[in-house]
Structures are given as structure tokens and as C-alpha cells.
Write a structure and sequence with these properties.
Shape: globular
Low-confidence stretches: none
Order of helices and strands: EHEHHHEHEHHEHHEEHEE
Strand content: 5-15%
Distance between the termini: 53 Å
Number of strands: 9
CATH class of the largest domain: Alpha Beta
Helix content: 40-55%
Strand order of the largest sheet: 2-3-1-4-5
Amino acid sequence: MSVITISRGSFSGGKILAECLARRLGYRCIDRDIIVERAAAYGVSQYELRDALEKPPNFLDRFKHKKYLYLALIQASLAEEVRTGKAIYHGLAGHLLLKGGHPILRTRIIAPMEYRVQMVQERLKYSRQDAIAYIEKVDEGRQKWTQFLYGVDWGDPSLYDIVLNLEHIDIEEACHIIASIVIERQFEFTPECQQRMDDLALASRVRADLAINPSTADLELEVLAHQGAVSVKGKVATMSQINEVKRVASAASGVISVNLDELAPPVRV
């Protein structure tokens, strides 16, 4: 009952691989659109949510905080979607958005440029030159996105449990390899594993609630949870926001207690 995340460059076969694994393992196949639709239930635009996932913020971007907001909603939606396991997510940075959850099999698929160019030409009807330019632009954006938000190199193999190169194996073979790992290792949800996933989902939900609430929407906070006990870290702009953080966090379903010891008050001048 594990969760599989698939990281890939554009048109590297990630979607096809996810669908193959879903058939073999009987798992749900989850893509970005499903998560965006769920996140939009918070009352935000699906277009802006997709934009937050596709375009990397830059240091001069006056909308950086909006990206924090949208990503908080996306993380909460993804964590809830995969909370009970048997799921495959092939959207951007699933292994990072679900960091802390367990068990998650973090996979990365890479493919030769020629393979990717052919896929772009077939599906988007681009010229070869335009296909190469498109792939390079999307890859650069994803690399900057993960570097800016998580401080890691998107292509670093140490971020993944398995990296497969489609240069000499095909999708079916890659699918067989990953499915065999899941079956042989029996990535089952023990009570401890399920608790960790529940904790991640609860912490993400509280963070999203704080991000969408008008009284706390200007804050960027870290939220941790363990068996209903929630801890909130970060800085507030006003003393009144401390009470608001506690109120909003306490109101979330599943929260038993709220610890604000690491919530820094505003600096007095």
C-alpha cells in the first residue's frame, strides 16, 4: 500500500509509466490536474495554482508569497489524496511535497533527448527545433522551481530511491522493475507508517488553513503534527496574529492541541 512518486523531465514517459504501474499494482494514478482541482476547493483559481507549479518564482517576484499560498494548498491536497496509500503521483516534486510521509517510493525517470523530442513532435506537432527549445525551457523552469523552494538540485540522484534511464530499457521494462520492488519489498502501511502519513496530512491541512485565512494569510509558517498535537513555527507580524494562529489551527479537524512555543512575536522597535 505504498505511495509512488515519479519525477521526470517533460515528455520523458512519466505519465505512461504511471499508468502502467497503476494497472499492474491496482493503484490510483494521480496527476497534477487532480491535485489542482482539489486545491481549488479552497476558493482559488485553478489557473493560478497551475502557474505556481509551472513557473519558478524569482527573487524580485512580488508574487512570491502567493506562490507560498498556492503551494501550501497543493501540498495539503496531495497529502490528503495519497494518505491511505496505493497511489502513484506523477506531478512535479511529489517526493518533496510529501517529504516526511512514509512509505514513499521516490522514483525518477530520465530519457534521451531524441526520445523526448519525438514525443513532443508527435503530440504537439512542433518542429524539431521548437521541440528542443520547449523541452529545455520546461526543464530549466522545474530545476529553478525546486532549487528556489527547496534548495535542492532537481536532478540529484540522492533525492530518489531509484533512477531509471530509458535509453536501453523501455517503459514496460521500467514498469516491471518498479512494480517488482513494490511487491517484493511489500511496502505496507504498518500502523506507524499510517500515523506518519496522517501526521503529514494534518500538518499540511493546518498550514493551508492558515495560508487561506485572511487574518494569517500574510504569514509563512512551518507546521508539524504528531497524533493530533500540532506545532507551529515562524514569525508573526502583530501580537494579535498569535491568537489567530492558535484559533485557526485549533479549528482544524483532527487537532487535539496546539503548541506555539516556536512562533516568534513581532520585533519591538
